[in-house]
Amino acid sequence: MDVNQLQSQNIGELTKFANELEVEEFSGLSKQELIVKILEAHNKKEGILQARGVLEVLKEGYGFLRSPDFNYLPGPDDIYVSPSQIKRFSLRTGHQVFGEIRPPKQKERFYALLKLEAVNDFPPDNVKKATLFDNFTPLYPEEKFTLEVDKKDMSTRIMDLVSPIGKGQRGLIVAQPKTGKTILLQKIANAIRSNHPKTKLLILLIDERPEEVTDMKRNVDAEVVSSTFDEAPERHVSVADMVIQKARRMVEFGDDVVILLDSITRLGRAHNAVIPHSGKILSGGVDANALKKPKQFFGAARNTEEGGSLTIIATALIDTGSRMDDVIFEEFKGTGNMELVLDRRLSDRRIYPSFDLVRSGTRKEELLLDKKTLARMWILRKLLNEMNTIESMEFLQERIRRTKTNDEFLDTMSQ
Question: Are 55 and 83 in contact (CB under 8 A)?
Fold first, then answer.
């Protein structure tokens, strides 16, 4: 039996399975408690148990395998990993561990890892051969993510032209309220999943509404990790830490990883709430040290010379009426190498996507685009700069709708 299969099932499926195993007295239990009951019943029939999870190493030296199905929350179905196993295989927080587990012995509360079989889908001995993330040489993005999927989807087609994303990009989507940032993230995620299926995709939602989390999970084929607005700031911080550590470990094994974060502003707010006050307060009530960890999160995005890449596309909120949000945005402004600005004036007129084409762009885009495309994009930008925000967006949409692909659109420009 695989514990992860149980964790991915809904409560109705687990209840049916519990009845088949003749589990007694399980009404009123939480999903995680019911999983423990099922494991106990299965163990009595002497079946082999296996589990997969993301390791969190605690300061005491031991660790637990957390499940993304429960947003890495501690629970009764977590798997204990001993300090000796962690030292022997050089395991760190964020490693994806798979192995055989055993039931708890006397006075033990948790199932424990008995035999380590794989780490990030590689033999355990490969961990010591992997280069540490901090030892990688950071480079500018050189390989482009193609976002163009459907000729009718203006958002991804225009992004490919105006602010292309490369492997290792550190991008900010600067958004006013109600400008369509969440829908845009969904479209980016689906485009990457469709055109680059080998890329590992993680979506991190911080301080979001629960219904938006459900909507994201149903519309995107990716791992969605969330901490909703009704949870404590400490929870927001711990979820973000687990996601970035998991991503770093994957890059160490040569993967191309993309994190879509909504939003860096709320992550900054959470850190401001939990950090011990230094006595130095910036305007808006932001502690001088509060944004150190969020900057480390965002700064982890990079293309590496030695192997994989970590791409982070984060939304930043502006014009919310909060001085704190403006201060957080100003701190992150200029730290990215791609910026996409959404304009409320466009969304108020129901013009989507609501891109400010003049203020949006990618640094070193010449590394991502071929010379022919680059030359035509410079001509297009000169033309758009002479128009206001609304005129430029309407002009570009009208021209793109006439063509099936971006290449065809660029070819028509030379005619």
Answer: no
**β partners of residue 138:** 304
Q: How far is it, in rounded angstroms, from Cα 362 to Cα 282?
A: 30
If asked whether residues 142 and 96 sit together in one domain, one would say no
Range of the domain at 94: 3-126
Mean pLDDT of the chain: 89
Contacts of residue 358, defined as CB under 8 A and 6 or more positions apart, other chains included, come to: 381, 384, 385, 389, 392
Structure tokens at 117: 């079989």
Q: Is residue 36 part of a domain?
A: yes
HEC string of 22-49?
CCCCCCCCCHHHHHHHHHHHHHHCCCCE
| Residue 403 φ/ψ, nearest 5 degrees | -120, 160
Domain ends where: 96, 126, 156? 126
Confidence band (pLDDT; 50, 70, 90) for 10? confident
Q: What are phi and psi of 204, to 5 degrees?
A: -115, 115
Contact by Cβ (8 Å): 160, 195: no
**What are the pLDDT digits (tens) for 363-396?**
999 998 888 889 888 888 898 888 898 999 999 9
DSSP structure class, residue 276: P
Contact 380, 400 (CB under 8 A): no
Q: Determine contact, residues 142/169, Cβ cutoff 8 Å.
A: no
Within-domain flag for 46: yes
Tracing tokens 């199905």 back to the chain, one arrives at 69
| Residue 277 DSSP code | P
pLDDT tens-digit map of 312-355: 999 999 988 889 999 999 889 888 899 999 999 999 899 888 99
Structural domain includes residue 210: yes
Domain count, the chain: 2
pTM above 0.90, yes or no: no
| Model pLDDT for residues 12-69, shown as the tens digit of each residue | 878 887 777 677 766 777 877 788 777 777 766 666 788 899 999 999 999 999 988 8
With H, G, I as helix, E, B as strand and everything else as coil, classify residue 354: coil
Phi, psi at 113, each rounded to 5°: -70, 120
Q: Enter the tokens of residue 161.
A: 């032209």
